[in-house]
Every structure is written in structure tokens, then in C-alpha cells.
Amino acid sequence: MITLAKVGAGFVFTVIVIVQVWVVPGIADVVVQWVPELAGLRDAGVVLAGILLSCVLAALVCVWRLLTRADRGRLFDDGSMRWVDGLVGCAAAAMIVVVVGCGVVFGAGAGSRAVLLIAGLAMVVGLGVALLLGGLREVLRQAVLLQDQIGGGAQAQETPSR
């Protein structure tokens, strides 16, 4: 099952890279054709979308590393914490990109209430993901502590006392 999850993550990673390199600029060109007053925001939109997709790619790398650790039976080691921290950081960075994007749109006078609503929704979803990952990080921390206690107790029982 872990191998299947890694194949899926690799596929999603590849699709996101294709979207980031070819699809996003194409969509930006179409939007500029439909709404010419947004032409000045094309490059900023492409860059911000690229940064946002890079956050998703970084999160996929963290998930890949956690899956690899799980496959090797090392998920409940201290080293897993940094990958979960990376996931939390990706969620936080994505929320910052959304806020900056809203600032750029409204700073250019191109924003409507719909953009503000979408940005607010993205912030709520991002905050929810960050809180969920933070909770899962705490569960992982507790599991690592429990495994250390069990492992430490087993080693102490194997050593004969004098």
C-alpha cells in the first residue's frame, strides 16, 4: 500500500510540475484576453501561482519522505518530526502566498468581493490544514515518546542486574 501511495504522490508531483510550467502561463494569457485590465497582473499571478504550487510540491516531498520512513519501519523515530514540521511550514507558506496575492490584486484595484471571499476561504482551509497537521505532529511526538519508553524498557530488561 505504501508503494502505491508513493506512485500516486509521484504522479501528482509530475502533474503539478506540468501545470506549473505550461498550464498556468496559458491560463494567465487567456484571462488577460478575456479581461484586458488584468494584463498588468499577469506576471505577478504566474509567479504567485508558481510559488503556491511549489508549496504543494514541497509538501509532496515531505509526504514521500514520511512514506519512505514508514516503509522502512522508522516512522516513529525523531527524524520524522522534521518532515511533519515541513508539512506545517508548507501550509503556512501557502497561506502567506494567498495573503500576498490578495494584496497584489487589491493593490492594483482589480479585486472584487468574490476574490476576497475566495481568499478568505483559502485562509480558512489553510488554517484548518495547519491545525490538523499540528495535531498529527503531536500524535507522532507521543508515539515516538511511547516507542522510546517501550524500547528503553526492553533494553533494561535484557541487561542482567548485579
Write up this protein.
Helix content is 85%, strand content 0%. It is built from four helices and no strands. The longest helix is centred in the last third of the chain and has 46 residues, at 113-158. The protein is an all-alpha fold. It has helices at residues 2-34, 42-71, 80-107, 113-158. It has one domain (2-150). α1 packs antiparallel against α2 (42-71). It is elongated, with a radius of gyration of 22 Å. Mean pLDDT is 86; it is low at 153-162.
Q: How is the main sheet built?
A: none
Q: What Rg is obtained from the alpha carbons, in whole angstroms?
A: 22 Å
- Total E-strand runs: 0
Question: How large is the count of helical segments?
Answer: 4
How many domains is the backbone divided into?
1
Helix content: over 70%
Order of helices and strands: HHHH
- Helix and strand composition category: mainly alpha
Shape: elongated
Strand content: under 5%
Low-confidence residue ranges? 153-162
Mean of residue pLDDT values: 86
Terminal Cα separation, in Å?
A: 47 Å
List the defining traits of the structure above.
162 residues, 0% strand, transmembrane, DUF2975 domain-containing protein, mainly alpha, elongated, membrane, transmembrane helix
Give the SSE layout.
Elements: H1 2-34, H2 42-71, H3 80-107, H4 113-158
Summarize the structure.
The protein has 162 residues and is an all-alpha fold. The chain contains four helices and no strands.
